Predict the 3D structure of the following.
Amino acid sequence: MKTILFPEKERWDALSKRPAIDRTYLEEVVRDIIYKVKSEKDEAVSFFSMKFDGVPACNLKVSPDEIRNAATQIPDELKAAIDLAKKNIENFHSPQLRTEPPVETIKGVKCWRKSIAIEKVGLYIPGGTAPLFSTVLMLGIPAYLAGCNEIIICTPAGKDGRVNPLILYTAQQVGITEIFRVGGAQAIAAMAYGTETIPKVYKIFGPGNQYVTKAKEVVQQDGTAIDMPAGPSEALIIADESANPEFVAADLLSQAEHGPDSQVVMLTNNKEVLEKVKAEVEKQLLNLPRKDIASRALKNSMLILFQSIESCIGFSNRYAPEHLIINTAYPDSLAGKVINAGSVFLGKFSCESAGDYASGTNHTLPTNGFARNYSGVSVESFLKTISFQEISEEGIKNLGPAIELMAKAESLDGHKNAVSVRLKSLQNV
Amino acid sequence: MKTILFPEKERWDALSKRPAIDRTYLEEVVRDIIYKVKSEKDEAVSFFSMKFDGVPACNLKVSPDEIRNAATQIPDELKAAIDLAKKNIENFHSPQLRTEPPVETIKGVKCWRKSIAIEKVGLYIPGGTAPLFSTVLMLGIPAYLAGCNEIIICTPAGKDGRVNPLILYTAQQVGITEIFRVGGAQAIAAMAYGTETIPKVYKIFGPGNQYVTKAKEVVQQDGTAIDMPAGPSEALIIADESANPEFVAADLLSQAEHGPDSQVVMLTNNKEVLEKVKAEVEKQLLNLPRKDIASRALKNSMLILFQSIESCIGFSNRYAPEHLIINTAYPDSLAGKVINAGSVFLGKFSCESAGDYASGTNHTLPTNGFARNYSGVSVESFLKTISFQEISEEGIKNLGPAIELMAKAESLDGHKNAVSVRLKSLQNV
């Protein structure tokens, strides 16, 4: 871990920079996969599943029996844990579904908005050694609450052709039964364009490897919406002298174990805390099963000492972390100063893992500094807003002359005429 | 205009298809412009302004004097019209700024969301012969209401180096004074990367020609957010026997005059209405200053006869129009059936021009079928949402064991440890 002492403001931007991710070398191979899936559909999907994942050709769609049987393979206490997480996520996301009253903007002109679910959405769930069934909850629950008509999951199968039962079980718990065993860029292409078996969707959600990420970028250019741009996961922790170094170190490591490119940063106004956390990280690292991954991530990580906690918050806003843990004596007073972050964890018991799994907030969050201009996934991510307006005789009389003048000034006489014919008809009455 | 009678459902998808827009041929030239502006900044901006718009090198930033003087060039009645529009747009957009109460998802776990303005945003306003000052209102007002810290405008100057006074005046009315005389792809590049004079922004809004659109696509891939993907403007009108053909024709033409690639569609369940509208369009077209543009757009336009108004709504949802005008005897009963549309105009006096200028709704809307998966611009477009959570001792006791189990099942022991160290500390107390 790099230790940086009292960096001057001029350095903050440089310190906030994430390593550049160059995916241009993937462009050709991913475009080729997408092109083939678009034209040869299921056949191409099976071909690439065999080629990249070693999955033999099999029914792309997971059968109802397979989904039902998944439950028998999950221990009861894990089922109860999933159920608790599900309830909390529902509790947090349900109020995001709102209706808005109409506004009479001027006498006779009634305007309103209505949020309506995107009809067809696709969720990509990474598979492999660590089945991200928590992501099934984080994407499936808001999709269900929004009322999406068709919710499908694509997730890669193992070499035995089977999808991890935890993913199947969790999907079933959130009401999703359209599950397809396909991963990688071929899965994204299948959802963007549709195949004989896999339905086309209008928006694609979910994390994935660099092929998945690149494929999402490419299909976005061709009209399929995506949840947000992707990047390696990251956490920034602000700790003062009240923080327990053991907790801080555990939080840093829980981020570092995600992947070798994970970003881990700690800011403090206390040199002793910095030293203690550093020592504690080294100690805890030894017992971590994923210590190889974590130690590679830690090589790029930073422990930064600032003069004050205010400077820590200032730097954090510049950095715009995906996860921000404020482990200080008075975290509430700092919460109001947060401008750029994906999700914020306040106080010593609010660890990031809580939000990753079960507190109720969503764990699909903007990384890579995108917290400056993107929000995390919410029920709104699965909705679009339509505006409506109803204008009465009185309304068009009130508005009409202004519209005529403005349209004329923009040289759009046809726009003016649409008002003029209506105003004229009212004079004739 | 093409007349289509009783198309079968199998044809609906084909009829809903917009002409493909291929911008790949722009890729090279636009990437070159972006690359040059990124490295040579102001110098490159001035070079391209001269090259493409014939604007001689001059101060890129519009001076306070120029902005103030603009007001003297606008007739008072047009000022009053702009003021009326501004008030209505404010009335409609203000309630979009909301706060949400916290949710206690489980005892001891308090979660909430907070919407915070994107700090720096850039508005692109097309200039030239038809200065789109209405777009200054439609983007500037929600940006201001959201509370964006830095709101800038880029808009091309004329060959005399001057920006249209209507744009300057309107910008000033909505509180924007950082205005830069630059258009095209070079303006988008300048806002995405910043130059000596033009500040870098985090999100770019606004319509533009194909260079602007392509440049927005390119900078989006590199981390700058954009409002939405672009396409030609379009309107779909549903009319029954109660509709006044003169109104319907005027609405079709007001859409057609936008550009030769505008999409204009009318659906009806009444053959006579179809014939009358067709005749009326031909009649009104003759008097339209932009009749050349409009008649080219009309060549691709469709008048479609259906058996019922329900089929009209069904087709419209498949088509997903930017603007949907429901000019029928009972529009309210149909409003509830709209699933895909940008903005909906109900009843005979609700013409699209009203929403384009002054009713209060936003006119920056998803085109090209994007109403299936995107919303129009709103105050939310200028905000991002941050989630917060605060977990007490009781909270981590309630949640902890479930998190440990789930993290373990995802093979993320570091995530589990972050909880375990906290639970252990509580046992020791």
About this structure: The mean pLDDT of chain B is 95.
